[in-house]
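Question (not urgent): is this output format expected?
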Amino acid sequence: MGKRDSWLFGIIVLILAFCLWVLIPIDSTRFGRTGIVYGLDLAGGVRLVYQADLSGVEAGKQAEVVDGVAAVLANRINPLGVTEPNIEKRGTDQIIVEIPMPKGGISENQIERLGRTALLEFVSNQLSADRVQPRWQPVA
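Got this back:
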């Protein structure tokens, strides 16, 4: 091997060593990478199955109701800050929610909040004679 060939071989070995240093181990934080993000199957998490009671819904509107419930669940999950929640419909009346475990974990309060029934109240704003502040009264 000539002198030129040995220099070329040395440069190739250095480039190969640098590439291996960057790529292995894959789960590292070199060069601003976040490493591998484990999914629900590896990191664990929560899998919730909701069964809709469609007994009071018209026959043609059942799919719309289940789609609306899935959208509400998605809106409730997004503020939790989890990555890649999976919300899917199964059959005509079931919704499956899979949430990967965030770093802080998922509390029972957060799981209960997902299934809680929403409440919307309409109130009237009336000023009373003796009070400067408005008084809220539920509208019947």
